[in-house]
Design a protein that fits this description.
Strand order of the largest sheet: 3-4-5
Oligomer: single chain
Helix content: 25-40%
Distance between the termini: 48 Å
């Protein structure tokens, strides 16, 4: 089993001090991994492969939360593909020696004109369960909770997932 220095501060204290440019007991830690790597990390740590168990074993200070979408489906399922319910980004399964991973493909707005882009479905902010999100915030009050994930505010990657990176750079 791998030993990780947990520190003497709570995760929230550590992150707030760091954001305020104050001395903390250690550098704040976050963790994201694809499923195959996540399983191997959990096994190396000797913990179950659920996200919270691995985060706790690694001393992760952050907790990523998103409100649950409760609105109508915006995009239709596609056989042999995974379609992101909020953005319409399409993924295909790519097998490898560890099993495989989902990779972006079939960029739905790759050939789109301005009208198609303007009419692309987007979720209504009222179609999310914010009360349930508040309950989850309370559950993780000891962590530095943040909302979203690396793709939410990242215009290039999120847009590239539905338009294609080549088009995004040309659209600039």
């Amino acid at each position: 089993m791998i030993g990780i220095f947990q520190g003497s501060m709570t995760a929230k204290e550590r992150v707030l001090r760091t954001f305020n440019h104050e001395k903390a007991d250690r550098v704040p830690v976050n963790y994201l991994a694809n499923p195959a790597i996540h399983k191997r990390v959990a096994a190396a740590l000797g913990v179950p492969a659920d996200k919270d168990a691995v985060d706790d074993a690694l001393g992760v200070d952050f907790k990523e939360l998103m409100p649950r979408y409760t609105g109508r489906p915006l995009f239709s399922p596609r056989e042999g593909r995974r379609v992101h319910p909020l953005t319409g980004a399409v993924q295909r399964w790519v097998p490898n020696q560890d099993g495989g991973y989902w990779d972006h493909c079939d960029f739905p707005l790759a050939e789109a004109d301005d009208e198609t882009i303007a009419n692309w479905p987007v979720p209504d902010p009222d179609d999310f369960d914010y009360d349930e999100l508040l309950d989850r915030c309370k559950l993780y009050r000891h962590k530095a909770v943040h909302f979203g994930h690396p793709g939410v505010s990242d215009v290039m990657n999120n847009t590239g997932m539905i338009r294609g990176m080549e088009n995004i750079y040309m659209d600039l």
